[in-house]
Amino acid sequence: GGYCFSKITADMYQSDYLLETLASNGFSTAKLSVDRSPDAYHALRAGFEASAVRLYRQEEFITEARELLEIDGKIDHPPGSTKDTTDAVAGAYFNAITSDEARRLLVRHDPPVLLGIQPKGGNATPEDPFGFYTSISPRPIRSFIG
Question: How far apart are CA 95 and CA 93, in angstroms?
């Protein structure tokens, strides 16, 4: 019953020792700053908009996310608040969608199969890969011109 971590990331600020210690214990580590670039937050927002993200209802995250500001291309929090939880979520989501595992899942390794529909032996062509058009009887054509 433990957790399986594919990669552990931390920002650039005072994280060298942590990452080195984790790496020496066999963990895959990397540096990722969600402060230097808004890419992780933009990806997270796109994930929510596409209904691709479902989170446990964590009030701290909801509060922080509600207060986030984007000013001059930087995602930040208002004075007196934090964005530690949203940073962690955005970083974890960004790592997940940019991981090698995610890229391998996007590559098709098997021939396409769509609910049992398979190409018809001799009827498949590049324009009609399933051979549907040759099996459909042609419709009568009437000319309405001249």
Answer: 5
Distances (CA, A) of 145 to 31, 54, 142: 69, 58, 9
| Phi/psi of residue 85, nearest 5 degrees | -70, -45
Rounded Cα distance, 43 and 90, in Å:
8
- What is the rounded end-to-end Cα distance, in angstroms, of the chain? 79
| Cut 0.85: pTM above it | no
Residue 83 per-residue DSSP state: -
| Mean pLDDT score, 28-48 | 91
Which of 55, 98, 93, 61 is closest to 77 using CA atoms? 61
**How is residue 117 annotated by DSSP?**
B
